[in-house]
């Protein structure tokens, strides 16, 4: 029985738990005891994490996976797996996964996302107008970081933004590690019902949005459409929102990096990649289970063993990113694993990039005096959520 | 340098088109890789190699 259990306590808010950094110095793969007693693995090295994510011999099916930490919500995988709607392709393996993903990739190409840029810039501008009109201090999460990706994904999918009260609370409940399995199931039920209803409406009155387009292809039944739409709504919401919130916190506490993002347009694209690498908001996974014995860097992972890829630690592996514990917007940060790797690599990554490349510089240029309205220590971190970030970010200018 | 692209394994992540838009595009319908030139000029070779390592699905290769 391995004495190692998943370390989750951070000594500094922007760095992975020290224990993991130390483990990485001793190797890339470590035996670990899971919350249910399973003897699986923890990966802290960059190359090994990439190799697992690229391998076709690992499964992403929920019912094959053991929970790395004892989060109340992890029980969802036992009690609620039947309830994951059929189209939730993040949790599928080949060949089912491809069938769904291929229907969507055309909608998320680099070129398509370029076309959305003017509208994203407009949404960002409107949020900044509202913030200026209200005057500081404000919570940047509520006024900026959350509404921007939320408005963008709602418009893209064709989900009425006015209905957000029907799903924003539920996506939050689902993302919390403290949520009990029953509450998570109830939230999943409510939000699925909301989506199912929306799909009925799109069938009756199609618009020129993504969900209407999917309905029209006739490739998916209503349950599958519900799952796809739900995955897109959830994945498109909390992720970019937390990058904007936590990224702003990181910049405000690293003023020279903030100045580069604000003053040097040529620093923005790579700067966003570096923020993604440095902050790695997906902090408790991805998780995979071996379908057969697989050798990774000379270590045999046996069929049935679960592997947790600790991306925040892997993204600071000095063999791939020397001096990676520093935030340096000028470092070549491409190749980070924050969007994953392999067949499940983030479908919405070009959208997320477009949002961040527009939002960070716009915020810093419009409000050059932007600063925290509390001490950095007072900012509540999302250690209790499946996606890392700040719960609130009180700022003024 | 000669580039090969295999649409059947491509997952449409767009890293190639983002990295070297002069060489890679994505199809309108499926978002899978479209090779704009098979033999890129020398000054793009390094960027093409970078795209190959960034591609999450192993769909593009060079020889
Ligand atoms: C900064 C923001 C984002 C981050 C850090 C992020 C991260 C990730 C990661 C790590 C995965 C792979 C999970 C795994 O392998 O198990 C993933 C998958 C996915 N993401 Fe994102 N994501 C972001 C934004 C978005 C947005 C805006 C969308 C909007 C549509 C989106 C949609 C998806 C979908 C649909 C998948 C599943 C892909 C598949 O299974 O083939 N993501 N994301
Ligand atoms: S980077 Fe790879 S997977 Fe992504 S579109 Fe290009 S070839 Fe396809």
From TrEMBL, chain A:
Keyword Heme tagged: yes
The protein's name in its UniProt record: Cytochrome P450
Keywords: Heme, Iron, Metal-binding, Monooxygenase, Oxidoreductase
Molecular function as annotated in GO: heme binding; iron ion binding; monooxygenase activity; oxidoreductase activity, acting on paired donors, with incorporation or reduction of molecular oxygen
Matching Pfam families: p450
Keyword rRNA processing: no
Organism: Nonomuraea fuscirosea
Assigned protein family: Belongs to the cytochrome P450 family.
Cited SUPFAM superfamilies: Cytochrome P450 (SSF48264)
Automatic annotation (TrEMBL), chain B:
Domain of life: Bacteria
Name of the featured protein: Ferredoxin
Coiled coil residues, start to end: none
Any matching Pfam family: Fer4_13
Keyword Transport recorded: yes
Transmembrane portions of the chain: none
Organism per entry: Nonomuraea fuscirosea
PANTHER family listed in its UniProt record: FERREDOXIN (PTHR36923)
Function: Ferredoxins are iron-sulfur proteins that transfer electrons in a wide variety of metabolic reactions.
Cofactor(s) named in the record: [3Fe-4S] cluster
Keywords: 3Fe-4S, Electron transport, Iron, Iron-sulfur, Metal-binding, Transport
UniProt key word Metal-binding: yes
